[in-house]
Amino acid sequence: MYNLLITLLLIDCVLITIAVLMQPSKTNDAMSALTGGADDLFAKQKPRGFEAFMQKTTVVLGIIFFVLSLGLVWLSSH
């Protein structure tokens, strides 16, 4: 059981990395990186399409990561 959870956790880590790298960049230029994007503070729009899918995928993979991590901690303490 321990080996199965470790394997699933490693697969989840790789998938989270891929999902984060596939998300589109929100900064348009280097100046917004320096200023923190303060000019876009009130210009927030709801993500649609691919961006929304990738955000949901990242959240689901993050939840799976924490559940697997907690399962490993519980299993290793018993």
UniProtKB/TrEMBL annotation:
GO terms for molecular function: protein-transporting ATPase activity. One of its GO terms (cellular component) is plasma membrane. It is found in: Cell membrane. It is a multi-pass membrane protein. One of its GO terms (biological process) is protein transport by the Sec complex. It holds the Pfam family SecG. The chain crosses the membrane at residues 6-22, 58-77. Keywords: Cell membrane, Membrane, Protein transport, Translocation, Transmembrane, Transmembrane helix, Transport. Its main location: membrane. Involved in protein export. Participates in an early event of protein translocation. Belongs to the SecG family. This is Protein-export membrane protein SecG. It comes from Lentilactobacillus hilgardii (strain ATCC 8290 / DSM 20176 / CCUG 30140 / JCM 1155 / KCTC 3500 / NBRC 15886 / NCIMB 8040 / NRRL B-1843 / 9). The lineage of its organism: Bacteria, Bacillati, Bacillota, Bacilli, Lactobacillales.
